[in-house]
């Protein structure tokens, strides 16, 4: 190229792409190059390096100098003697089996720019096994809206649950969009399809119910339930009625649906209201501006859904969605979700950041039953 004064843009692009790929592959910290590849094509051993080969370059003294192409190490005798043995032992190592797997999903393609390139908490303890892992379903939020994508999404989630079952994992928690009622009835679809599953499939509903109940002011005698009757809404209404707090709804259909899921004693506290006198509103998604205008001055809007209503009233109080403040001792919180602050966490992602104590809370809130059958 120097002598002819010409160059190839394609060759330059391929060269840069190859160098970038090899650099990232060599520093991925796990072995992925099969041994059989070098048996079938022996020259590749001298032209193509592996992550374990590169790891010896960082951990041993004066060995494995030639990155990307080990040929020169073999020529000059600087190859570490344990290179082949380490490669084989890394491929034979048993895969880790975590106690808990949090099954999340992608948001938007642009969200990758908000993530860190590395995690200091993991890099500081490279050989320590973790009791919890986060897996991501390769689907974006927009795909969950499309009806024709639901079958493929459910298939991927089901395969992930069966995979953690084979690994001996005890609990798998479903992330925000992976637990929708229209998608899989809060994970019940997989339980029904595989009744002998040993892994517990959870969605954080019990914890969300507890947080909403905790947000209601003491001394409240009546609340108005406005929104879709989800599993969380049914559980909240049931617990309030059991405590002697009246739960008002506007629709006869909603009244009958809730009534069918309540026990006999608590049904008396469920009423059909024709007025808007209640100052505590438990609201779901899409609370319109017209509905908010009907609330009296000073009303508290407490959402039980994953997304808060848009505030239109300056003379009312708007609570956040069911969330908790992270303890001060919690470090390396690298991301947040749903428009909440960095130090705030939602029930569906609690398992990925808080410890075993909150995990225990989520599974043992027996005073907040969430398995009522809200028949449609």
Automatic annotation (TrEMBL):
Top-rank lineage group of the source organism: Eukaryota
Q: Where is the Fatty acid hydroxylase domain?
A: 3-78
> What single Pfam family name could you report for this chain, choosing any that match?
FA_hydroxylase
Topology with regard to the membrane?
Multi-pass membrane protein
Entry GO CC: membrane
Coiled coil segments of this chain = none
| Compartments where found | Membrane
Q: Which InterPro entries match?
A: CER1-like_C (IPR021940), Fatty_acid_hydroxylase (IPR006694), Sterol_Desaturase_Related (IPR050307)
Q: Which UniProt keywords apply?
A: Membrane, Transmembrane, Transmembrane helix
**Record-level Gene Ontology MF annotations:** iron ion binding; oxidoreductase activity
| GO BP terms in the entry | lipid biosynthetic process
**Record carries keyword Lipid biosynthesis:** no
| Domain (Very-long-chain aldehyde decarbonylase CER1-like C-terminal) ranges | 223-340
Q: Which PANTHER family match?
A: STEROL DESATURASE
Which family does the entry's similarity section mention? Belongs to the sterol desaturase family.
- Name of the molecule in the record: Protein ECERIFERUM 1-like
The organism that produces this protein has a lineage beginning with: Eukaryota, Viridiplantae, Streptophyta, Embryophyta, Tracheophyta
């Amino acid at each position: 190229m120097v002598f002819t004064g010409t160059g190839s843009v394609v060759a330059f692009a391929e060269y840069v792409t190859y160098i970038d790929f090899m650099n990232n592959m060599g520093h991925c910290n796990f072995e992925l190059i099969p041994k059989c590849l070098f048996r079938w094509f022996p020259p590749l051993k001298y032209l193509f390096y592996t992550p374990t080969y590169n790891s010896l370059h960082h951990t041993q003294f004066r060995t494995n100098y030639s990155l990307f192409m080990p040929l020169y190490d073999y020529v000059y005798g600087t190859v570490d003697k344990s290179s082949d043995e380490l490669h084989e032992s890394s491929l034979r190592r048993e895969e880790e089996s975590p106690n808990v797997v949090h099954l999340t999903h992608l948001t938007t393609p642009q969200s990758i720019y908000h993530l860190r390139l590395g995690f200091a908490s993991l890099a500081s303890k490279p050989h320590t096994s973790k009791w919890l892992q986060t897996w991501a379903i390769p689907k974006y939020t927009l795909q969950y809206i499309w009806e024709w994508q639901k079958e493929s999404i459910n298939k991927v989630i089901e395969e992930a649950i069966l995979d953690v079952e084979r690994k001996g994992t005890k609990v798998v928690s479903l992330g925000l969009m992976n637990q929708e009622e229209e998608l899989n009835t809060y994970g019940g679809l997989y339980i029904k399809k595989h009744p002998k599953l040993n892994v517990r499939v959870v969605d954080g509903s019990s914890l969300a119910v507890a947080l909403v109940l905790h947000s209601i002011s003491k001394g409240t005698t009546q609340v108005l339930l406005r929104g879709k009757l989800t599993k969380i809404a049914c559980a909240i209404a049931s617990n309030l009625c059991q405590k002697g707090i009246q739960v008002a709804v506007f629709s006869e259909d909603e009244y009958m649906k809730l009534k069918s899921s309540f026990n006999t004693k608590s049904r008396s506290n469920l009423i059909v209201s024709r007025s808007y006198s209640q100052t505590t509103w438990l609201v779901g998604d899409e609370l319109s501006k017209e509905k908010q205008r009907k609330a009296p001055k000073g009303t508290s809007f407490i959402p039980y859904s994953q997304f808060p209503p848009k505030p239109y009233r300056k003379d009312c109080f708007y609570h956040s969605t069911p969330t908790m403040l992270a303890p001060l001792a919690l470090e390396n919180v690298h991301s947040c979700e749903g428009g909440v602050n960095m130090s705030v966490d939602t029930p569906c992602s609690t398992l990925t950041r808080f410890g075993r104590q909150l995990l225990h809370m989520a599974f043992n809130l027996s005073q907040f039953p969430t398995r009522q059958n809200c028949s449609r």
